[in-house]
Design brief:
The protein is of the alpha/beta class. It has two domains: 234 residues, 3-Layer(aba) Sandwich (Rossmann fold), CATH 3.40.50; 154 residues, 3-Layer(aba) Sandwich (Rossmann fold). Helices cover 43% and strands 12% of the residues. It has 15 helices and 13 strands. The strands form two sheets. It has a seven-stranded parallel beta sheet, with helices on both faces. The protein has a six-stranded parallel beta sheet with strand order 10-9-8-11-12-13, sandwiched between helices. Helix 5 links the parallel strand 4 and strand 5.
């Protein structure tokens, strides 16, 4: 069977698809991944032996540039729908399968291609706040906030349908009509399907089971869609750490890692300065992950080291704490390593993961997206406390590593 995996987003969207592709290939499937042409994404896919079908412009270039004007959002959405429809249509086959995640217009394009081909389609959420639930709010698009007086979750999710129709309905339905598909009244539910997949760890992100186990006492309310939770899709990483990084780690006590992954920050120099001061205030060395924010050493002192793209699965067990933006992948990797976390959420699902880390007692949630030396020091003191370290270490053993294998069997079974 030929399976096409489609995504348009950051590394946190691409790497789980590589993990699934690897498991599908082990089961005999022919797999292609439609994703943006960013060099770091193509390199990770190549390391996993997965064919990339490049689609659209570089995601890094997109998010690092000026934010789009409200008038340009519809145009960008229409372009993504068309690009991913064409790419998936050319890569998939009738009777095969398409699995999609990432930005909504890209998913809509992939879904339309699968629909035209008669291929099986599965939508996968890599974080829960895109899936309707009686237990959490939908995330907000900055250009379309929800009325502050509305707090009822069912009402908020109903408003979310209108938001998605307003932002993406025209682009999706215009394209569907152009390729001979019927228009849809509710683009959100059509694209997400009636039974979406959720690729998150059940311990970090409890999702009530359709069978009843794990449901809250009142049960799963009627009328809410149920998701199939597979566990997180983790790509094994066997790359050794760079020699200079290993030397820094060996030269003293475990440092605190600070990195914001694929998040470009408004003031990276200020964030780096605040981080270094906060970590030093705890008597710790600091390891800066450059990432898309381009964090860099602030004064050349020997207690600070900056590193580029690196194997976090190998690195995180060697640090005292991880300060990060709160992406699903980084949160899961740090939890697997048994290391305390400080989450400084920037957008979308990151506040949710910050709340989960705090609720589990394995770290701290920073209040707001812009840390100061003082605010970060307060969060770090909590994260580095013995009780937090003990809880983080204890929870690590419960994190599942078989999510991609479970999803592969579900798709091919």
């Amino acid at each position: 069977m030929r399976v096409v995996l489609s995504t348009y987003g950051s590394r946190g969207d691409v790497e789980p698809m590589a993990a699934l592709a690897l498991r599908l290939q082990e089961l005999g499937a022919s797999v292609r991944v439609c994703a943006s042409p960013d060099e770091e994404f193509s390199a990770r896919l190549a390391e996993a032996g997965v064919e990339l079908v490049p689609v659209g412009q570089s995601v890094r270039a997109l998010v690092s540039g000026p934010p789009p004007a409200p008038s340009g959002i519809s145009e960008r959405a229409a372009r993504l729908v068309e690009q991913f429809h064409a790419a998936v249509l050319g890569a998939a086959e009738p009777g095969g399968a398409v699995v999609a995640t990432g930005l909504f217009p890209a998913v809509a394009g992939a879904q339309a291609a699968a629909e035209r081909l008669g291929a099986r389609f599965a939508y996968v959420a890599l974080q829960p706040t895109v899936l309707p639930s009686p237990h959490h709010r939908p995330f907000e698009y900055p250009m379309a906030p929800y009325p502050p007086e509305v707090t009822d979750l069912r009402e908020l999710w109903e408003l979310n349908i209108g938001t998605m129709n307003t932002l993406f309905g025209e682009a999706v339905n215009t394209h569907r009509a152009a390729v001979g598909l019927p228009e849809v009244d509710n683009v959100r539910d059509h694209v997400l399907t009636g039974r979406p997949w959720l690729a998150t760890d059940p311990l970090l992100d409890p999702w009530p089971s359709p069978a009843g186990a794990g449901r809250p006492e009142e049960g799963w309310p009627e009328g809410w869609p149920e998701a199939v939770q597979t566990g997180a899709w983790i790509l094994p990483d066997e790359r050794p750490l760079p020699a200079d990084l290993s030397a820094f780690l060996a030269a003293g006590e475990a440092p605190v890692y600070v990195g914001f992954g694929s998040m470009p920050l408004r003031d990276p120099a200020g964030a780096a300065q605040a981080a270094v001061e906060a970590v030093r205030a705890q008597g710790r060395r600091v390891l800066l992950g450059r990432g898309w924010a381009r964090l860099a050493e602030v004064d050349g002192a020997g207690d600070c080291f900056a590193v580029g793209e690196v194997n976090q699965q190998a690195l995180f067990p060697k640090v005292a704490a991880v300060v990060h933006h709160g992406g699903a992948g980084t949160t899961t990797t740090a939890a697997r390593a048994g290391v305390p976390q400080v989450l400084v959420p920037q957008m979308v699902d990151q506040p949710y993961w910050a709340s989960r880390v705090a609720a589990l007692g394995i770290g701290a949630a920073h209040d707001g997206p812009t840390p100061t030396a003082e605010s970060l020091a307060t969060a770090l003191r909590h994260a580095l406390a013995p009780a937090t370290r003990e809880r983080a270490a204890a929870l690590a053993a419960g994190i599942r590593t078989d999510g991609a294998a479970a999803a592969a069997k579900l798709l091919l079974g």
